[in-house]
Amino acid sequence: MQIEETPSGSRKGLLIDTTQCLGCGACVAACRRENNLPDGPSDKLSYKNYTVVSHYGKYNVRKLCMHCEVPTCVSVCPVGALQKRESGAVVWDETKCFGCRYCMLSCPFQVPTFEWMSYNPRIRKCILCYKRIEAGRPTACAEACPTEATLFGERDKLIQVATERIQSHRDRYENHLIGLTEVGGTSVMYMSAIPFDELGFSKDIFQRPLSETTWRILEQVPNIVMLGAWVLGGFYWIYRRRTAVQSVEGRSADRSPTGKGGHDHAE
Which uninterrupted H or E stretch holds 232? Predict the structure, then answer.
């Protein structure tokens, strides 16, 4: 469901209320249709599934890319194949990706997947239906949800909706919104009636964007390369100097009357 019409240039997102999800899988089916994904098991994220529904007792939780406000995957990609769009979506360009899989290793939510069985493998993940939302339409999953467990709209408005629900129903919801501040904030946010670690969310999710760390590391790469080149250059100079000295000493020995190259004229 789309909560309101918003300007095309504003940041969009999803609010997922786990207390209202039936686990019907309508979102999964809609995502497959929208992205022309093949049929296959829908129990985990893969190149066949950009979103899945996991079951935790009586609660059902959609898993998909969180579309971080400051994406770590974007900061570690060496070829710029990933980018954060103004609409809120984190998207990938398969023509640039060469399969290093740094994005898979760096993602704090372990979302990106890889086409392991393909002759031309690509990174695959949810792209937040960015073409739809930049055309003023909701994501396919939000449009298909029959219970409004997935709401689409402007991120700031979704935060307001979640805050009002939590304050109005303190006995129904945890007093926290996953994605509000985690890893610097995300475009996909969650509400829950039980502690989030009981729904598969890690307790160790950082509050600050991990990309701040990766950018600091990557900024040092040129310095490290230059230092390495200087050190290797020094070793090479020492090697050449030692070889030259040994060569000079060898020629001096050859010219000596008692050297290997000399002739003994003593009778």
Answer: helix 221-255
Sequence-distant (≥ 6) Cβ neighbours of residue 190 within 8 angstroms: 15, 16, 17, 18, 61, 177, 178, 179, 196, 199, 201
Q: Can you give the pLDDT at residue 5?
A: 55
CATH placement of domain 12-218: 3.30.70.20
**Residue 36 reports pLDDT greater than 80:** yes
User: Contact 108/206 with Cβ under 8 angstroms?
Assistant: yes
Q: How many helices (H) and strands (E) does the chain have?
A: 8, 9
Instruction: Tell me the CA distances in angstroms from 168 to 29, 180, 191, 246, 255, one per residue in order.
Output: 33, 19, 13, 86, 101
CA angle 11, 59, 69 (to 5 degrees): 20
Question: pLDDT for 159-208, tens place per residue?
Answer: 999 999 999 999 999 999 999 999 999 999 999 999 999 999 988 876 66
- Let me know if 165 is exposed, middle or buried by CB neighbors in 10 A (0-12, 13-18, 19+): middle
Q: Domain extents for the chain?
A: 12-218, 220-255
Contact 66, 188 (CB under 8 A): yes
Other Cβ atoms less than 10 A from the Cβ of 153: the count is: 23
DSSP readout, 180-197?
SSGGG-BSEEEE-SS-GG
pLDDT of residue 60: 96
Of 169, 249, 214, 168, residue with least CA distance to 68: 214
Residue 235 scores a pLDDT above 70 = no
